[in-house]
Design goal:
With 121 residues, the protein is mainly beta. It has one domain. 0% of the residues lie in helices and 45% in strands. It is built from no helices and ten strands. It has a four-stranded antiparallel β-sheet, with no helix packed on it. Strand 6 and strand 7 form a beta hairpin. The chain is globular, with a radius of gyration of 16 Å. The N and C termini lie far apart (68 Å).
């Protein structure tokens, strides 16, 4: 049995997300994001899709079909990228945005900007 590798891809526009697995025979299906602002970044990891965009928009989805808005706490900012990593063995989502904004989240549901360390006087 020969298995061809499949590439998991998400392509996004202002109103729709196109989510699927790409191979020569596959068809892409448009999915409504439920928001009207442009989305600029999308990632898939740990069984979860995360999409980010203008006006502090963060959306999550377990399947790429149904999207849930999440509070970023920064409604006036553009969020332009999202990624997932495992620093120190723990999974961590990170969203980046305008003016150097960085938002970490362990679960893609709660997002909070890290507080700057206080200088010792």
């Amino acid at each position: 049995m020969h298995l061809r590798p499949r590439l998991l891809i998400a392509v996004f526009t202002a109103l729709f997300l196109f989510v699927g697995r790409a191979s020569a025979q596959d068809l892409w299906q448009p999915r409504t994001s439920g928001v009207t602002v442009p989305l600029w970044g999308v990632a898939y990891a740990a069984g979860q899709w995360v999409a980010v965009g203008e006006q502090g928009t963060i959306l999550t989805s377990p399947d790429g079909a149904t999207w849930t808005p999440r509070a970023s706490g920064f409604p006036a900012r553009w969020l332009v990228g999202v990624g997932y990593g495992t620093p120190g063995g723990s999974g961590l989502w990170v969203v980046v945005g305008g003016s150097g904004l960085i938002l970490p989240s362990p679960d893609a549901i709660t997002w909070a900007a890290p507080r700057p360390a206080r200088p010792r006087l």
